[in-house]
Design a protein that fits this description.
about 350 residues, seven-stranded parallel sheet, 13 strands, about 15% strand, NAD(P)-binding protein
């Protein structure tokens, strides 16, 4: 970073649920930082909506599959923030390649990469069954290679940590691992992906359901608190006080009561049944035609327990204040309604 110019940010996922929530904080806390956002199909309406959140953002057209675009922008940015996808290895590879070239071109000035992953790395493969013991992981002392090796996110996360520990063309790396994100977003996307997936499946099969009996659970976290977590690690990184590389792993989880999948899918099922959207209320295991195509990936992510503690984030002064004000269960009906509204607005009525 130049001593005379503010650091520049290349942002993947700026139009998403978490990304646009964080972008609003970025505009408020660091309006002087130039932001370049990768946007798929940047129509005038989408660009206007993005700039309503952050007036100074500049849009570059592209998708996560556009290797040349991502590499080009990563080569010239001081900071890359990826809140787009935890599991899109090609875009992570493009980002790391661009940042490596960035580092090689400016010896002594290491670019920063902040990546949003998830606590799916901790999945215990309980397959929705009751278990006697679930390990609770701290992010202090966490070694990704000690996580179950077939778990989701690790394909991307381990190379990121490796890039943050090498001595040749080094990169500063931080990974944030949110637990189950909930709440209605204030940005461009109002609802979280897992809610939309389970809603779509419920409408498809006629009832709300789980992977296995649904006794598995995980910590939860309000989207505003995850956006705040990203801001805290960015601030610490700008000040040079953040843990990075092998130590740059941050769980973003509240200690509010965990809600088993069975319990919250029952709330969803009863809500949808009362509205006449599904054929029956309550919840039951999803049929093989739904769960089988996702195989181990689905069981690891949606049928496992994931218990985490945000010890490292607490060190930088973060606290999950919104999660304490509104729980997952309290937020769920409003989230379902917002997702239904988005779903209906996306349906195109045929011309007679």
């Amino acid at each position: 970073m130049s001593a005379d110019l503010p650091p520049t940010i290349f942002f993947l996922g700026a139009t998403g649920y978490l990304g646009s929530e964080f972008l609003a904080l970025l505009a408020h806390e660091y309006p002087q930082l130039p932001v370049v956002a990768l946007v798929r199909s940047p129509t005038p309406a989408r660009v206007a909506a993005l700039q309503a959140i952050h007036p100074a953002v500049r849009v570059v057209e592209g998708t996560l599959a556009d290797d040349d675009v991502i590499q080009r922008e990563a080569q010239v940015a001081d900071i890359v923030i990826n809140a787009a996808s935890s599991d899109h290895w090609p875009s992570v590879r493009s980002t790391l390649s661009g940042l490596e070239k960035n580092s090689a071109a400016s010896p002594g000035r290491k670019p920063l990469y902040i990546h949003v992953s998830g606590t799916g790395i901790l999945g215990d493969n309980a397959r929705g069954e009751r278990v006697d013991y679930v390990r609770e992981y701290s992010d202090i002392g966490l070694d990704l290679r000690n996580c179950p090796p077939t778990n989701t996110h690790l394909e991307c996360d381990i190379p990121i940590v490796e890039a943050g520990t090498r001595t040749e063309n080094p990169i500063r790396t931080i990974i944030v691992f949110p637990s189950q994100i909930y709440g209605i977003g204030q940005g461009m996307q109002k609802t979280t992906l897992w809610l939309r997936i389970f809603l779509d499946l419920a409408i498809q099969v006629g009832y709300s359901g789980t992977w296995g009996p649904g006794h598995n659970s995980m910590n939860n976290i309000h989207v505003k608190d995850v956006a705040s977590a990203l801001l805290h690690v960015l601030r610490a990184a700008l000040q040079g006080t953040a843990d990075e590389g092998t130590e740059g792993l941050y769980f973003a989880s509240s200690l509010e009561p965990k809600v088993p999948y069975h319990d919250w899918t029952k709330i969803m099922g009863d809500y949808l049944f009362a509205k006449g959207i599904v054929k029956q209320g309550d919840t039951q295991p999803m049929p093989p035609r739904i769960v089988d195509p996702l195989g181990h990936y689905g069981w690891s992510l949606l049928g496992s327990n994931q218990f985490s503690k945000s010890d490292r984030l607490l060190r930088v002064g973060w606290a999950p204040v919104y999660s304490a004000k509104e729980s997952l269960v309290e937020s769920l009906p409003g989230m379902i309604e917002a997702a239904l509204e988005d779903r209906s607005s996306a349906i195109v009525t045929p011309v007679p």
